[in-house]
Amino acid sequence: MKKKIFIAFVAVAIVPAVITILAANMFARLELEEIRRHNATTGLARLDADIVKDLAAMGSAAKNEVLNSRWRRMFLRRRQLGSVFQAQLIEQLGDRSTQAGWDFSAVIDTFGVVLARGDRPSSFGDTVDYRAVFGTQSITKPTAAAVAPFLPVWGTGGLLAIAPITHQEKTLAYLLVGKPFTANNLREWVGGWAIPAMIVNSQQVLNQTPDVPEEQLSQAMFAEIYYGPSVSSVHLTGRRFLVGRKQLTSTNSGRPPLMVLLFFDSASVDAATAKLFYSMLAAGGLGLLLAILCGGLVARLLTKPMDDIIEAAGRISAGEWDADVISFSKGDAGRMADAFNRMIGDLRRSRDRLIQTERLGAWRDAARKVAHEIKNPLSPIQVSAEDLVSAYKPNDPNFENVLRQSVKTISEEVAAIKRFVDEFASFARTPRPVFNQFDLKDLLTETAAAFPAENKQGRIAVDTTRSLVIKGDPELLRQALINLIKNGLEAGGPDGSITVTVIDEDETVQIIVDDTGSGISKEMKDKLFTPYATDKSGGTGLGLVIVQGIVADHGGTVTVRESPERGARFVMQLPQDPPPLEDR
Hints:
By secondary structure, the protein is of the alpha+beta class. Helix content is 52%, strand content 18%. It starts with a helix and ends in a 9-residue tail after the last strand.
């Protein structure tokens, strides 16, 4: 009961705790994941705002620059300047690029031919399909956009603004101002957040910051990020990253758009999640330990009164009738203990009365049996004495016969009285066994030798084929076997026989005595081991009671059943190493 209460208490405590820990951990993970995704989305929004700001600034710079009349005058004097036109154009563009801090600048004619580059003065003569770059057929006003690389003019791509240089509504040339997608510019756009970033198209990485995870993206992973949702999760270099994806270029040009990828390291958040989980697990473990301690204490408090009663009941069943239950509780447990003590008191008084009654009854039965057994022979003795007196006549030839017959009768009846008294005395003074080790084979041989005539006639068969050492009192066991064999011989008559076999059963041994008599009736079998119960003429009914007492003192049992020989079978089952009498 204590174990069940303890298990129930711990189960009631641990199940909600486990559910709470798992649920809290799941919700914490979901919440932290939502926070991570929110941070990634916020970072993309900030990046988008920075790019839009830079586009506006470059568009404004290109617009303001072409409004300066120097560019219009330069192209209006182109024919006049002749071969020095391009040199002056390159020099003027270089100076303006240095003054304005443009990362990229170029002047192209209306056919897309590069006339000058401010970032690379020696690079000119390339052709730029500016209509494809900006995805439009006509550029009549300043325009800014994120564009893909248009090699060989600009191999990295970036933020690009274009503004027409006009005179009287006629386009003379175009000024290009740009901010390329370099690692430094990527770092500037992410605002110094220390977030790794890279610029990619559908096939390759165009540029990246130095702190991008060293492990290369697999082709499948790259495609999943490029074509997937705006925020996705990947594992790189043994860590988990949330990757935010921002499309930079338009698809109007017919070319795969450029993407900027921001890598948000989840290591710190994952560590916080793990720390939270282990903290909750430790708290749950502490709660479980407290639940176990409290469960054990509660189970002990609830079951101790019952344990005390069970212990007292066990002591009483062992014969300690002075066992009481001491309870310090005034509740139900105290009332139960008081009721148990009252019941034990009533049982003690009932037991004392029963013992006294049984003793008186036993003495009455013994007195009646003794009186009966002595009275029966007295009648033939009295008749024989009276016959002697009446038959006595001097010189009567029949007197000698009467005398002999009377003396014989008197002797037989006196012998019957003596036999009864001897068995009664033997029953009354059966000694306590003295345990020693002995060979059961020797005991059976000595027992058979106690019946020399029957043994010689072959009426007794004893199993002495093997030795078996057991512990017990050989003298008392020999007496018990003699009683059983004697009863079997008497039951079988002049032609009856006895078979004694031994069965070794590891910790016990069975001694089986089979006779060839008529068996034992059902009515007699129920009271066979009751004192004075017998159906034999001249029997006292004490022999089997003595056998049962000897076997019981050895910690064994004796039973009776039908024999395969149609007689009776008595089975003595004895422990090979019986416990001491005081331990029973």
